[in-house]
Amino acid sequence: MSGDGATDGLTRRTQNSSRELLAKAFFFGCAALSVATTLSIIGLLVYEAAKFFTISAPLLGIDGPTATLTEFFTGSEWGLQGPNLGVMPLVAVTLMVTIGSGLIAIPLGVATALYLSEYASERARSYLKPALEILAGVPSIIYGIFAVAYITPVLDTLFGVDGLFNVASACIVVGIMILPMVASVSEDAMQAVPDDLRQAGYGMGATKYDVSTGIVVPAAASGIFSSFILALSRAIGETMAVTLAGGSLARSFDPTSLASYLSLFDPDSYLEPGMTMTAAMIQLLTGDVTGGGLAYRSLFAVGLVLFVITLGMNVLSDVIARRYQEDYQ
Amino acid sequence: MSGSYDGFGRVSRRIGKLFRGVLFASTLAGILTLAVLLVYVANDAFQPLTADPGWHLVFLLTLVVPTLATGWLSYRRSYGTLATGLLGIVMPGIAALYAGGLAALFIDVIPTLVWLSFVIALAIPAGVIVALRRTDRSVPFLAELSAVLGVTVGSLLVVPGLVQGLPTVPADWMVLVLTLGLPEAFLLGRWIEGRWGRRDGWIAGAAILVGSAVGGVVGMVSGFGAVPGVALTLFALVPTGLYAAIVVRERPDRRIGLLLPAVIVVGMVAGELLVGALGFAGPESWVDWSFLTSTTQSGDPRSVGIYSGIVGTILLMFVVAAIAVPAGVGAAVYLEEYAPNTRFTRIIDVNISNLAGVPSVVYGLLGLGLFVRYGGQPTGTLLVGGATLALLVFPIVIISAREAIRAVPDSARQASYGMGATRWQTVKNVVLPRAFPGILTGTILALSRAIGETAPLLVIGAAQVFGVPDSWTSTIGAMPLQLYVWASTYASPAFYTTVLAAGIVVLLTAMLSMNSIAIYVRNHYEQR
């Protein structure tokens, strides 16, 4: 930061020349553009989604089909023919992908972070870390093709699945995609644990295993936990891999019955196709979305739900990382 | 740590070893899964098992064995020798890739005459700027600015029309020699002059210019094409030659490393000749010339090609870089060099990290609403797609540029201010030049993220079936979009393990080439 007094003093005489002002205005405009982007995302999503709901659409002059809030949040079917405009069936499959990918990425990610932070030599780290970054760098469309072309056949031999599409293959590829995020954020948190604590542990006669599980992991818990939330929010926003792998067949899901929630944890239901929120958005694009019709408006309604969930999780992860961080200074 | 005293003093190595093994296996699990998947993709794309055993044997003897032997010899001398050799084969490969992309642009997208007219139109204001710099600095800034802006606008309005109305026009390849070869010869000549002396600089400059013309003629005569000939000469042969010359002249201890690329090239040519002579059939690879250059869209896997996707991706990356890099670096400069420590600055700070976490499909919605529905743009054009992807990578560019700027030592700034420099002069002359490698690395990595993005392009309505774009307003394709079209429209096993595998190879090659450039830039400047 160059906001210090000495620099201000040294540049005071020149700071109001037209060249300086022009440069500053340009840089400020660029920074303000980032705020403008956020505001446009929020404004646009809210405004267009408002045209989708019966409660607000007449105010904006929309007289096409709309959805009541009850229908949107408690309806058990999704589909523009009908139209059945319940978003919960899509949220449910998104939740399944989040659970499934979390089951893969969280244990593997924490173990990876622990290995890299506590056990790996400097040389091993220099090879393993870029290799892990590659996992996150492969485009999601490629993961989608992997899921359909290579992982589904394996699942078919093991468990027997019908057709090309199922939720399980989506969970596997998304799990691989978000693994580096769990690993790198957790590892940063583990590296931030001061060495004094480890040395104290060794001084007490603890083994490396004791120190890793008994000192490092608890001390880094807030960072590890925030990495889970961050990675899961990435899984929720993931689009192309789940669109290709899960197929585009909306399931029915009754948000008012307990049994349907239990089915989210039923392994068999993972072997069937399912459409997430993001996949539904891609499917809506096959309709006409430029004219502002029902497809366009429901696109933004689903998009708003997605945005609110991911933003909420990102903020939550930030809060956890900050508030519960142990301060060793 | 159990809190009980029973276990004290009894230490089992077994648990520790087991735990370590489990952690190591978990670390490798993801990497190995991806590696296995990539092996499957490579196998499906190149079909190496369909080749004659004789074909494999010939290439084993002419290419693989000599390469491994030379590589081992280089490594025995020193690790640096091997690295020199590897760079000598990787760099020309990547350079040829990009030269090919550039040639594709000039053949199919940009009419060379239009290109020439705009280069001339922009050369005039550049000349004015240079002339103003040469005069004494008594010109007031605002007068200077308005003069430059006036000349730029005027020349852009007048000159292109004049040039395009000329009765006789030079051939395509001559335009390239003039507009690309001449500046390259001048810049590299100046650079070599500073390095090895005036005479060598002149020789190199002349050689580059003549070489590019010869490349055009050879390309025309051989049927390879004049434009690709010039492009390959300028952007693949010249850098390769320069690299070899630098190694030979300045690193005599590593000279032997250049044997590796030589052995590989000779081995490939010899293997190709032998295979042809002996009549061994090669593999029925899906990544072949017709796949790379065909624009056909149909249900027949053998006839389709990815060409329009490649051209679309190149054009999109230009637009993304042109928008996201100045804006992102500008925002980073503001936050690091200008921003007072106020509430607004902190809001921007939090806002950027949250923007980086917004799902890419939501950026597509932003582009759809902002540019298409309310901006009045047609769906799926180059500008809309590029602007949408630029917004997507904007926070990534800001974050990496801030890191690079923060790494510039404060003493450099203080020295500049102490000499009486203004803020803008300090940013321009001290901060940005020193942060440049870091900014470049971050930019390339951000672009390699944008290259694989599919969902935003789908949402803004990029065409599902598309050709090579011929204007700013024609709908554009991209490599990942092409993959999605094949995967969804022609969803059959016949497509998944054939054309899609080949498409994955092409897309990953483009990404890896960008990433390796970024890594090279980072390592090169870290050593300083």
Automatic annotation (TrEMBL), chain A:
Q: Which domain of life is it from?
A: Archaea
Q: Which SUPFAM superfamilies match?
A: MetI-like (SSF161098)
**Transmembrane segments in this chain: where?**
21-47, 90-116, 128-151, 163-183, 214-236, 294-316
Any one Gene Ontology biological process term? phosphate ion transport
Q: Which UniProt keywords apply?
A: Cell membrane, Membrane, Phosphate transport, Transmembrane, Transmembrane helix, Transport
Q: Where in the cell is it found?
A: Cell membrane; Membrane
Report the Gene3D superfamilies cross-referenced here. Answer: MetI-like (1.10.3720.10)
Q: Does this UniProt record's set of keywords contain Transport?
A: yes
Main location group? membrane
Q: Does the keyword Membrane apply?
A: yes
Q: Name one GO molecular function term.
A: phosphate transmembrane transporter activity
- InterPro entries (UniProt xref): MetI-like, MetI-like_sf, Phosphate_PstC
Membrane topology per record: Multi-pass membrane protein
**Residue ranges annotated for the ABC transmembrane type-1 domain, each copy included:** 91-317
The terms describing its cellular component in GO are:
plasma membrane
Family, similarity comment: Belongs to the binding-protein-dependent transport system permease family. CysTW subfamily.
What's this chain's function?
Part of the binding-protein-dependent transport system for phosphate; probably responsible for the translocation of the substrate across the membrane.
Which protein, by its recorded name, is this? Phosphate transport system permease protein
| Source organism per UniProt | Halolamina pelagica
Automatic annotation (TrEMBL), chain B:
How is this protein annotated for GO cellular component?
A: plasma membrane
* Membrane topology listed for this record: Multi-pass membrane protein
Q: So where does this one cross the membrane? A: 21-42, 54-75, 82-107, 113-132, 139-159, 171-189, 201-221, 227-246, 258-281, 306-335, 355-376, 382-401, 431-451, 494-521
Q: Where is the ABC transmembrane type-1 domain?
A: 310-517
Q: Which InterPro entries match?
A: MetI-like, MetI-like_sf, Phosphate_PstA
Q: Gene3D superfamilies annotated for this entry?
A: MetI-like (1.10.3720.10)
Coiled-coil positions: none
CDD domains recorded: TM_PBP2
Which GO biological process annotations does it have? phosphate ion transmembrane transport
Respond yes or no to whether keyword Transmembrane is given for this record. yes
Q: Which SUPFAM superfamilies match?
A: MetI-like
- Name where it mostly resides: membrane
Which compartments is it annotated to reside in? Cell membrane
Its keywords, alphabetically, are: Cell membrane, Membrane, Transmembrane, Transmembrane helix, Transport
Q: Which terms does the record give in the GO molecular function aspect?
A: phosphate transmembrane transporter activity
* One family name in Pfam for this protein: BPD_transp_1
Similarity field: Belongs to the binding-protein-dependent transport system permease family. CysTW subfamily.
Q: What is the protein name given in its UniProt record?
A: Phosphate transport system permease protein PstA
Organism field: Halolamina pelagica
